[in-house]
């Protein structure tokens, strides 16, 4: 067999000297025969299993790879009409290389005559061959040896190999290649990226999106294995479907961003698709078996007994209400993005608000109040009223401004009814239960009280959120109306100035000013004055009720935390200017309720703490001995509490009026707070003292800044 290398070398040298293409292919044939003889003579009959396959099969792959590697350089010398053979050869070689490396990386073991040891295909080899292939593709593309479609396919094939370094799956290379081939055409096959018009026609966009969806469906097993590796157990059908939807939406981003950036419905649909996938991931709703497609791999993972042996039998919680929450959120997004035109159709707006309320009401009832079946109707009615009020406040109709106050009144009336009825129904259900009837009397009472307390706390949280939402919506609408009123005044003032100087303006400019003045939103301002006068009062009632409910929740959940008032008091910033609520209250006084409530809350809770400590230490106030330790404790702390009043009174008066006062007054009140900080036995008095010092310094600095600002106008 020795003449073969000599003859092959002769033809190879002849190719270099005379550039003879037949000489090169003769060298390829002889070189392939040499490689085949060497492999068959040395490795063909060995009983070795390498990377999950026999050594004989691996030798076949190696010989095929060598033949392709020897053939492709000669194909570059062919005429340009036959350059497609280069592309076919390069793609075939890339597929073969990807298959070999995937086998080596996924099946990292070698078997030889009963001995088995681990063999790790190095990761740097995968990285090296990947970047070497990408560099070769770039060079051939720059020399115009291969076309853009071949560049696209080769880039996807070589890049997909990097996925095996991240995800431990046997099919991750092919799944990644399919995904890249589906995602990359908008990036690689359409080069005119900076034109304003779409480079892709509408039907092409639909086809690309469909191909992306099909490729994601084809890769569902790889996604399943990745999620199983990440979670340590088989993911649910909802989680798997959510990731598939999110991946589909993200894969369609290049299509919309590069080719349909001027099409607003495409962007809205893309946002809706991604949001749907995220909701499926977070909620993981149950999917009927008739709508799921489970392959053998997924079915085997589902039927594994490891979860039962490790976790045991876990009582499943009904998760069907999550579909209602997903539907409600998607309806909201569809309305916000104007996919559902509720802004222009009153009937559709009504149907939308009622559907939203019913969906949220059933979800809340089934998720948090499952045992109190009688209250489901009240909760659904409450959510329907809330949805109708919010939707029609944001998008009012001709008659909604007259009906919305009654809707809010019904909502307020439902609050105490639902709160009281929940306790009564829960007590009857628990006392009438046969299982509970066998318990001891004390355990029965304790269980009943805990159940009622927990359910009522949940109801308080629900109504606090409802009133907060209503207060925010009204605050937003009133701010919008005030801006429109300012625009109207500016338009009228501009039209008057235009009329006074109309002789100096050309006729076209005068007609434009007249058109702007006539288009001012006078209907909105008139509606606010005539029919929307209830909005500030309703907003204030909702704000006060939300704040009061939050105080009750603070007492129930934290026992009356001192720090909670600093987080709850800013709720009062949602109060609106209303002469019926507080005379003289306006935008300048918006911080006054916050500061006065903080001071008042701390003072009242301090007095209650002192009374509680003295009452628990004695049988009552009648048993309190004058001059005794409890009497001294009460008098001392009350006196120290009174010393903190001047700073708080001065600061709250300043916040109400914002008038400059004597700069010495706040500073003189600062020393009065020091005994309250150093001597008192009650923590809240120390907080009041520190707060008084902060108030005094803040008042002094603000007054000083006002004085300096006023000097600039003199």
From TrEMBL:
Keywords for this protein: Membrane, Transmembrane, Transmembrane helix
Presence of keyword Membrane: yes
Residues passing through the membrane, by range: 21-40, 82-100, 120-138, 150-167, 173-190, 202-218, 238-257, 269-287, 323-342, 349-366, 372-391, 403-421, 458-476, 533-555, 561-579, 591-611, 631-651
Keyword Transmembrane part of the UniProt annotation: yes
Domain of life: Eukaryota
PANTHER family reported for this sequence: NO EXINE FORMATION 1 (PTHR35313:SF1)
Protein name listed in UniProt: No exine formation 1
Species of origin: Eucalyptus grandis
